[in-house]
Amino acid sequence: MSEQRNTELGDFLRARRAALTPADTGVPTYGTPRRVPGLRREEVAQLAGVSVNYYTRIEQGESHQMSDSVMEAIANALRLDDSERMHLLRLAWPAQVMRREAGPEMVRDSVLALVESNIDQAAIIVGRRTDLLGGNRLGFALLGIDRDARPNLTKHMFLEPAMRDLVVDWERQAHNAASYLRMTTGEQTDDPKMAELIGELSIQSPEFARIWASHPVAECLHSVREYDHPLVGRLTLNEESLRMPDDSGQRIIFSGAEPGSPSAERLKLLDSLVS
């Protein structure tokens, strides 16, 4: 395990420990003052049924001998959800994570044709580092991105001022974007381009740096998103994210409106305006 991954594992466990209180887990405090609101190492160790020394070593990245049962016990003690458990697994046992080439991503012509042929929904193809790799006419129009542009969508969310006006509840959606990016870091072991992206965002966006420091982790599967589009007004869209079956790390994201709704009419209007 690399030194960077050792640090990432420890930081993740400490962040999750700090996010829990004794009241969340039923740990008795006996009325004694606490310097920090989160759980102490010894309390997590007690909940997980391991020694304090052993848990401390795990927080320090020495997890090469962690068994399935210990992994499960720590995940339960920290109240990790499914996405966070998968992230913990990838950090603790990186040898089990498939390594991918760090070079440029390619999209199959058949995938591009599938997305571009969809006329009822906005559709985009997102790469393993959240780069925009392609999309249909509505997909580019929804995000206000030129058809020839291929920005990184996480950078676009945090660094493009227009996104704060376009995306309703920008703070929550920005948190989701950072959470998904954190999830992908566990899938891409020692990717220098990913490290460069995170470094750039941390320097250029205080909001990203603040969110990233809390170690949020979440898979991006489906959601309802609202947009305040400058051309057609408010849109409420159902978003579905589909991973490519060959596990390339790429996703197709479809955004559509309920049939007959005002948002559906506005989506049709947007399509006509950019056709």
Please give a structural write-up.
The chain is an alpha+beta fold and 275 residues long. It has 14 helices and 5 strands. The protein has a 5-stranded antiparallel β-sheet with strand order 2-1-5-4-3. Helix 8 (137-143) packs across helix 14 (262-274) and helix 12 packs across helix 13. It starts with a helix and ends with a helix.
Number of strands: 5
N-to-C SSE string, H for helix and E for strand = HHHHHHHEEHHHHHHEEEH
Helix proportion:
40-55%
Structural class by secondary-structure content:
alpha+beta
> Which ranges are low-confidence, i.e. pLDDT below 50, for 5 or more consecutive residues?
none
Short structural description:
The chain has 275 residues and is an alpha+beta fold. Helices cover 49% and strands 12% of the residues.
Q: How does the SSE layout of this entry go?
A:
Elements: H1 3-18, H2 22-25, H3 41-48, H4 52-59, H5 68-77, H6 82-92, H7 109-116, E1 122-126, E2 132-135, H8 137-143, H9 153-159, H10 162-166, H11 170-185, H12 192-204, H13 206-213, E3 222-229, E4 233-243, E5 251-256, H14 262-274
Antiparallel strand pairs: 1-2, 1-5, 3-4, 4-5
Helix pairs in contact: 3-4, 3-5, 8-14, 12-13
